[in-house]
Amino acid sequence: MDTPRTLPPPVRVTASLDAPLSRWLWLVKWILAIPHWIVLFFLWIALLVVTVIAFFAILFTERYPRPLFDFALGVLRWSWRVSYYSYGALGTDRYPPFSLGPEPDYPARLDVAYPERLSRSQVLVKWWLLAIPHYLVLAFLTGGMRAGWWSGGLITLLAVIAGFALAFTSRYPRDLFDLVVGLNRWVLRVAAYASLLTDAYPPFRLDQGGDEPAPAEKSL
């Protein structure tokens, strides 16, 4: 008899809603986040270069060099923390650290399992051809991605609605929070895939809430 085993997701996006949140701080976070946005602008340029190098490394060796992988993951982590603090979620008032590391104490976290082997054939097409359906979804969710933070789109609209809810009720509606994190989770899964960090195709599924859904079971 086959024994089911759980398969942890290769990309894990988690977030916890801080409470209490300031009723008015969200109005000026666009100013407070400017130093991060400046740094992220250059980090995303570096990430593009790293991704090109990784492309050829995977093509010839089937491996993403670990130092480059850690850097790429660090840029995505930094971007997620800044987005979570600012208008990608407004889920915390804790200022994001200037760090590429995991920062497990910060309420927005991202992890990608390091792959021991990546497909040579997939690396030729996954970042442009295979990901096109997801890019169309992301264009709606984010209004486009620019230098590592989300710019406009449905996610920002929902975050601003949450900001007004904070201003008038001092509460972040929980259902709205779960939806916003779920949409960001979709964005980050696609970003990890397009950055060549994983061969696992992002699911067309909205997994809402601050915690990752339970791992799928597979029979041995």
Biggest sheet architecture: 2 strands, antiparallel
Quaternary status: single chain
What is the helical fraction, as a range of percent?
A: 40-55%
Strand content: 5-15%
Mean pLDDT: 92
Strand segment count? 6
Q: Name the overall outline.
A: globular
Q: Provide the succession of SSEs.
A: EEHHHEHHEEHHE
- Gyration radius from CA atoms, angstroms: 18 Å
**Strands across the major sheet, in which order?**
1-6
Q: Which runs of at least 5 residues are low in confidence (pLDDT < 50)?
A: none
Alpha plus pi helix count? 7
Briefly note the structural class of the backbone.
mainly alpha
Q: Termini separation (Å)?
A: 9 Å
Pfam families: DUF4389
Organism: Streptomyces omiyaensis
Protein name: DUF4389 domain-containing protein
InterPro entries: DUF4389
Descriptive notes:
By secondary structure, the protein is mostly helical. The chain contains seven helices and six strands; from the N terminus they run ββαααβααββααβ. The protein has helices at 29-32, 34-61, 66-85, 120-130, 132-142, 153-169, 174-194, and strands at residues 4-7, 11-15, 108-112, 145-146, 149-150, 216-219. A hairpin with a 2-residue loop joins strand 4 and strand 5. It is globular and about 55 Å long. 34% of the residues are buried. The mean pLDDT is 92.
Describe what is shown at a glance.
51% of the residues lie in helices and 10% in strands. The protein is mainly alpha-helical.
Topology, please?
Layout (H helix, E strand, L loop, with lengths): L3 E4 L3 E5 L13 H4 L1 H28 L4 H20 L22 E5 L7 H11 L1 H11 L2 E2 L2 E2 L2 H17 L4 H21 L21 E4 L1
Antiparallel strand pairs: 1-6, 2-3, 4-5
Helix pairs in contact: 2-3, 2-4, 5-6, 5-7, 6-7
